[in-house]
């Protein structure tokens, strides 16, 4: 099966990233945009742009029937969902199949199964992948109190249908269970229309480590190394690195094997990420979830492997199988990515839409910028605040940190506040340099130190 015309069902930097990958394979490109994005750089660079609807995502990017109708009407034989929006909605994959359009991603049933965190845990357990001690579905606050007593405090209540930190509440003792249960359930219901919860033991000083996978749907799965995504704010990744140099080699091999085994056990197709908690004190890894799509942070894996993961997605979707064998994937050096958001960090990271009046990104050896911004571009109020990803690569982690500091210092953006100053502080912090961080380090340590210094 050959692909000829690709519909890009997304916006921003990932739409541009997919467009360039497709053009590199000589595919025609059609992008569906909202009215707010009709003048975007991606709309101008695509062979054709179709306006899906008005700015609000619910009336454009999140309307699966509208998106597939646009793909079919424009004669596309494939659709790439990017990340976010409809990328993990089984409905989109199903509609594509019904209309004879190749979905660049896993089968609908696989997306559905992995999107249910309880089912994903069962799949991981069946594949012999280590899990955080935890529970199945929790029926009530009283049920939660009983289970927490068995697991031992602190525990983490999590949404069965969700991710991204929504519907997640840490419970430190019996007196916090009832309020925590109702809060997590309400958040989960609001975010995912499903208030079902489960519980896991909370690991206080964990690192978030994930393995980039690619499967051909015919039983073959390979990995592209791991990423360390431990710098987080409210469970949202802020800085990502590859590889995770804090992890011993033997445990790294175990991590890769567990991720590949899980993906093989379900005959996984296309790109996916298997996420783990790394308990540094115990030197143990625990499965968290599988994200059935390309991830925001995929560039750091590309930088250390020299592989184009989006083009690999397109080849797999076209039925051409994997272009590389596991032994051909060689990791070189160290890569770091900083997410650049249009946010006011002084006002609790509130997103700030507006117009970019100056845009002077850094350039040089080992520096990559994935962004759809340019001078004069507008940032609509309807979407995620990320306006770009700055990625660097160097021979060692220390050299990559130095290169990122230089790149951040050279990055000039005016018109809207950004998170660039925060990234400068993170990269210059001695704990980040010494790699003595964990998933709560940013909020618990760095932000606290900032507040104390300001008082």
Automatic annotation (TrEMBL):
Q: What is this protein called?
A: biotin carboxylase
Which part of the chain is the ATP-grasp domain?
A: 121-318
Highest taxon listed in the record's lineage? Bacteria
Gene3D superfamilies registered for this protein in UniProt: ATP-grasp fold, B domain (3.30.470.20)
**Job description of the protein:** This protein is a component of the acetyl coenzyme A carboxylase complex; first, biotin carboxylase catalyzes the carboxylation of the carrier protein and then the transcarboxylase transfers the carboxyl group to form malonyl-CoA.
Q: Name one Pfam family in it.
A: CPSase_L_D2
Organism, scientific name: Novosphingobium resinovorum
Q: Which reaction does it catalyse?
A: N(6)-biotinyl-L-lysyl-[protein] + hydrogencarbonate + ATP = N(6)-carboxybiotinyl-L-lysyl-[protein] + ADP + phosphate + H(+)
Which SMART domains does the annotation name?
Biotin_carb_C (SM00878)
Listed EC numbers: 6.3.4.14
Annotated Gene Ontology MF terms? ATP binding; biotin carboxylase activity; metal ion binding
Q: Where is the Biotin carboxylation domain?
A: 2-447
Report keywords, A-Z: ATP-binding, Ligase, Nucleotide-binding, Plasmid
* InterPro entries registered for this protein in UniProt: ACC_Biotin_Carboxylase, ATP-grasp, BC-like_N, Biotin_carboxylation_dom, Biotin_COase_C, CPAse_ATP-bd, PreATP-grasp_dom_sf, Rudment_hybrid_motif
């Amino acid at each position: 099966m050959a692909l000829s015309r690709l519909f890009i069902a997304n916006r921003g930097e990932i739409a541009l990233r997919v467009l360039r990958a497709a053009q590199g394979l000589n595919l025609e490109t059609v992008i569906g945009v909202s009215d707010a994005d009709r003048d975007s750089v991606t709309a101008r660079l695509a062979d054709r742009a179709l306006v899906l609807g008005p700015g609000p995502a619910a009336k454009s990017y999140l309307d699966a029937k509208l998106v597939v109708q646009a793909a079919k009407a424009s004669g596309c034989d494939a659709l790439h969902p990017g990340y976010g929006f409809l990328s993990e909605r089984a409905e989109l994959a199903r509609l594509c199949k019904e209309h004879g359009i190749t979905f660049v991603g896993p089968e609908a049933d696989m997306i559905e199964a992995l999107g249910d965190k309880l089912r994903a845990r069962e799949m991981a357990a069946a594949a012999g992948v280590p899990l955080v001690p935890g529970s199945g579905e929790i029926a009530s606050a009283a049920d939660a109190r009983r289970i927490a007593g068995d697991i031992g405090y602190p525990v983490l209540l999590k949404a069965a249908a969700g991710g991204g930190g929504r519907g997640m509440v840490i419970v430190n003792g019996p007196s916090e269970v009832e309020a925590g249960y109702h809060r997590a359930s309400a958040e989960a219901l609001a975010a995912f229309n499903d208030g079902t919860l489960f519980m896991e033991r909370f690991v206080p000083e964990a690192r978030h480590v994930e393995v980039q996978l690619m499967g051909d749907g015919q039983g073959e799965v390979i990995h592209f190394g791991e990423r360390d995504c431990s710098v987080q704010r409210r469970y949202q990744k802020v800085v990502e690195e590859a590889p995770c140099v804090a992890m011993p080699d033997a445990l790294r091999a175990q991590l890769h094997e567990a991720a590949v085994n899980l993906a093989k056990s379900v005959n996984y197709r296309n790109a996916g990420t298997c996420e783990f908690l790394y308990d540094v004190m115990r030197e143990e890894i625990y499965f968290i979830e599988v994200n059935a799509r390309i991830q925001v942070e995929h560039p750091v894996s590309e930088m250390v492997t020299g592989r184009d993961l989006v083009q690999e997605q397109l080849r797999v979707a076209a039925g051409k199988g994997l272009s590389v064998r596991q032994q051909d994937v060689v990791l070189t050096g160290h890569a770091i990515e900083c997410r650049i958001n249009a946010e006011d960090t002084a006002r609790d990271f509130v997103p700030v839409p507006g117009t970019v009046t100056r845009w002077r990104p850094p350039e040089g050896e080992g520096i990559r910028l994935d962004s759809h911004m340019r001078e004069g571009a507008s940032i609509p109020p309807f979407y995620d605040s990320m306006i770009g990803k700055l990625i660097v690569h160097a021979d060692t982690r220390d050299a990559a940190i130095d290169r990122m500091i230089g790149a951040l210092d050279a990055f000039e953006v005016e018109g809207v506040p950004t998170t660039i100053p925060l990234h400068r502080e993170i990269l210059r912090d001695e704990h980040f340099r010494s790699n003595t961080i964990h998933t709560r380090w940013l909020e618990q340590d760095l932000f606290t130190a900032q507040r104390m210094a300001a008082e």
